[in-house]
Amino acid sequence: MPALGFGTLIPDLIDTRNATKAALEAGFRQFDSSERYRNEKEVGEAMQEIFKEGAIKREDVFIATKLWNNNHRPERVKPAFEASLKRLQLDYLDLYLIHTPFAFQPGDEQDPRDENGKVIYDDGVTLLDTWRALESLVDEGRCKAIGLSDVSLEKAKEIFVSARIKPAVVHVESHPYLPEWELLEFCNQNGVVFQAFAALGHSSEPRLLDDPVITSIAGKINKTPAQVLLAWAVQRGTALLTTSKTPSRIKENFDISTLPEDAMKEINEGIETRERFNAVVETGVPGFIPKGR
Ligand SMILES: NC(=O)c1ccc[n+]([C@@H]2O[C@H](COP(=O)([O-])OP(=O)(O)OC[C@H]3O[C@@H](n4cnc5c(N)ncnc54)[C@H](OP(=O)(O)O)[C@@H]3O)[C@@H](O)[C@H]2O)c1
């Protein structure tokens, strides 16, 4: 699995298509998508266009997508997986993740709500039931690896202990304001890839890209703050996901290099701000938390 990954959580469908192509052309070979993003079709079309040109083949690219909360019932897993593959125009996936540990009411509605606007959860299925259905996809050879997303250390351990096929990847929000050292240590000890999403802090407030520690290192080594943050993530042993709809930034984000050891130390020890930007881990409802500061 290439460490440097491109995420396709891009609301506009034309932007999704252009950004996916630009990311492949810039050198990204690891991609993340999700049925929840409702743009797998555009991601698939963009990839096919590039594959048809011939220089990059399907096998050169590590492609992941995720099962959404309304499809946790075991009998819904394979149809959801097949539907994602079809939209992505692929015949296998490199990685299939359970998007969140929260099961919503089974059905085609991705965001089921009651008359008071409250999410309708499904207490008739456990995360382990869903995990077993993902294990079957690996058995059938349609998916090379399976993993968990938006889980706590406790939840990751729970599945890890009971799983016949262990999670290959744990995908969570992580950056210098949310380093998740304990979870990273668990992953390292158990041969699990820790995959950090929102590696740049999603441009949310407080802006990680403007953190004085990051901007001062960037100035000293003649790199941009984004390049410093992405290099930090790779250098501490994680895979990562970053996203941009801007071609120049996509190129910039692929052009990273090793940070001096003292810069790693400065980020690890000099940054004290702690912030989670995405609240999905609390309820399963997606979304970055708007904070006007
Ligand atoms: N499992 C989950 O629940 C979950 C949740 C969230 C995200 N994810 C995954 O993780 C991926 C990455 O998350 P993210 O979108 O939060 O990533 P991010 O890279 O932290 O933030 C993306 C934001 O940073 C800006 N940006 C990108 N490169 C930049 C640069 N070089 N300089 C300045 N600004 C830059 C982008 O702006 P422009 O686009 O305007 O250039 C965009 O606003 C998603 O696409 C998705 O695949 C998963």
Q: Helix fraction?
A: 40-55%
Question: Which hetero compounds are present in the coordinates?
Answer: NADP nicotinamide-adenine-dinucleotide phosphate
Calculate Rg over CA atoms. 19 Å
Strand order of the largest sheet: 1-2-3-4-5-6-7-8
Number of strand elements: 8
Number of helices, counting only DSSP H or I runs of 4 residues or more:
11
Order of helices and strands: EHEHEHEHEHEHEHHEHHH
Category by helix and strand content? alpha/beta
The poorly predicted ranges are: none
Shape: globular
Task: Offer a few descriptive terms.
293 residues; 8 strands; 40% helix; globular; binds NADP nicotinamide-adenine-dinucleotide phosphate
Quick overview of this protein structure:
This protein is 40% helix and 12% strand. By secondary structure, the chain is of the alpha/beta class. The longest helix is centred in the first third of the chain and has 15 residues, at 74-88.
Please tell me about this protein's structure:
The mean pLDDT is 97. The longest helix is centred in the first third of the chain and has 15 residues, at 74-88. The protein has an eight-stranded parallel barrel with strand order 1-2-3-4-5-6-7-8, surrounded by four helices. It has helices at residues 13-26, 40-53, 74-88, 127-139, 153-162, 181-189, 212-221, 225-235, 247-254, 261-270, 280-283, and strands at 4-7, 30-32, 62-67, 95-98, 146-149, 169-173, 193-197, 239-242. Helix 1 (13-26) packs parallel to helix 9, helix 2 crosses helix 3 (74-88) and helix 7 crosses helix 8. The radius of gyration is 19 Å and the shape is globular. It contains eleven helices and eight strands. The protein is an alpha/beta fold. Bound molecules: NADP nicotinamide-adenine-dinucleotide phosphate (NAP). NADP nicotinamide-adenine-dinucleotide phosphate (NAP) binds next to strand 8 and helix 9. NADP nicotinamide-adenine-dinucleotide phosphate binds at residues 7-9, 32, 99, 149-150, 171, 197-203, 209, 224, 226, 241-246, 249, 252-253, 278, 280.
